[in-house]
């Protein structure tokens, strides 16, 4: 309390609450602490700071404000671990001891303040200030990835041009995907055709071995040929339909690309950009004005 002076408490009051608390801590000669890790010390500092605000608000002179802070600090220390009856007795004795430092009005205001704050919430104060708290603190280190260094603006692309390039690239990728799907379908149909032919041929071989040769050879052969033709026609029909659909889709994509290319935005030429920047400069503006005035003469 040696550094706590009337000028000091005046400065505490003039600061905002965070700065005022910190200034009061320095005046009390307390070491720095973390509000989250050391909640007890933080609550003590809040209580002392609130006593300053109370005293100033009630019109206490700055000298008496210092005494209010001392009164608060002594009361918290002397009532630690006491019952509420003992705390009320200690509060009454301290008010009697401080009669010479305050007038009757301020002494009554101080009594009401501590009855309505400290005594009313006495059990809460005792629980916080008298019992050690178990701290379970988990620290997690999170790596923050900084964004990459952007390229120079001179190497950038106009926004409209970039969007146009992205649209053209999407159409090209879609066209390539359709061609790939067509190749995959061809391979799948070829495998399916071979499987169906093998299945049909296997059935006819069973018929040939189970029946007389002279009567069924021609019929089985005709059935095998017709079945093979039917399988090939079915596979070719499906492939042809898909190829026609893909051809129409590719033509539509090419038409869209052609339309985009016709409406493509034109980027500013480097020479034109430099000329525009030069014309917008103050020196160029003065030179143009000079040329115009000479022309008028």
Automatic annotation (TrEMBL):
Classification via InterPro entries: CLAMP (IPR032727)
Q: What is this protein called?
A: RIKEN cDNA 4930578I06 gene
**Origin species:** Jaculus jaculus
Name the gene: C12H8orf74
